Amino acid sequence: MRLAAMTGPAPTTFEGATNTVAVLLLLTEFAMLRATLSRSQVRLYAVQSLLVSVLAAIVAAERGVPELYALAVVSLALKVVAVPWVITRLLRDARVEIAGSGALSVAWATLLALALAGFGFFAVGSLDIRSRFLPHAALGLSVAIVLVAFVLMIVRRDVVSQAVGFFSLENGVSLASLVVAAGMPLIIEVAFLFDLLVAVVVFGVLMRVHHHRTESLSTESLTMLRG
Questions:
Q1: Alpha helices in 64-158, H assignment, sequence order
Q2: Alpha helix segments (H runs only) across the chain
Q3: Looking at the domain assignment, is residue 216 inside a domain?
Q4: Can you tell me where the transmembrane regions are (predicted)?
Q5: CA-to-CA dists, residue 216 to 14, 195, 210, angstroms
Q6: N or C: which end of the chain has fewer CB within 10 A?
Q7: Measured distance CA(73)–CA(17) in Å, rounded
Q8: 152, 34 Cβ separation under 8 angstroms
Q9: Dihedral angle sign, alpha carbons of residues 203, 209, 212, 213
Q10: Is the pLDDT confidence value at 197 over 90?
Q11: What average pLDDT does the chain have?
Q12: How far apart are CA 131 and CA 184, in angstroms?
């Protein structure tokens, strides 16, 4: 009895499932950081987006928020199917397989990402933020995903990695929104997804123009434009 009082109540099946999905989201972000093939990064982004859609459906079923079913379907169609298809098509046209080199080695980039992820997770954990939709740990994991996505965008020197980092950052924001505001109107949630669609168009144009002028997707040549 005394031990049970010290450890607190056991987590429910819903909490265990949602925390597991959130951890898998973070692991896929680290896998993107370590991936050497651009197509592998795109596939990992599709898997991560699928996990976000699954999590939205779980929350909808457990917490009685039917709007999240529609969000899960739209997210599935846009982020799991449409965005990876567009990026893969651009890669096929560019005939590029290997992602650009990083400003840091893979080992150092991973260590930096681990440090930032740990800082973000424990910093948010120290805040007394409660939600009736998802467990408290999911918010810390969402912040960790965002920070690792920033590392991916900063240390990798190719357009595809930076685009995937930006898109996966949006997945971290989606996870955070499920934690703190899962009951917001559906139109606002869908508006976030269409913002992502605009970003896909911008990155797609950037990839085409940059490859046409440099015959490469590496951004190292852009450093000469600095004043």
A1: 67-75, 83-94, 106-125, 136-155
A2: 2-7, 13-34, 38-63, 67-75, 83-94, 106-125, 136-155, 159-180, 186-214
A3: no
A4: 20-37, 44-62, 68-91, 103-127, 133-155, 164-184, 190-209
A5: 46, 27, 7
A6: C
A7: 20
A8: no
A9: negative
A10: no
A11: 76
A12: 13
Q: Which residues contact 32 (CB under 8 A, 6 or more apart)?
A: 41, 44, 45, 48, 152, 161, 164, 165, 168
Higher pLDDT, 207 or 170: 170
Q: How far apart are the first and last CA of the chain?
A: 68
- Residue 61's identity, in one-letter code, is A
In a domain, 79, yes or no: yes
With CA atoms as reference, report the closest residue to 70 among 169, 199, 193.
Answer: 193
- Residue 127 is which amino acid? L
Query: Which position has the token pair 């939709």?
Result: 133
Domain count, the chain: 1
Please give the residue range of the domain that contains residue 39: 16-98+105-211
CB 25 within 8 A of CB 52: yes
In a domain, 134, yes or no: yes
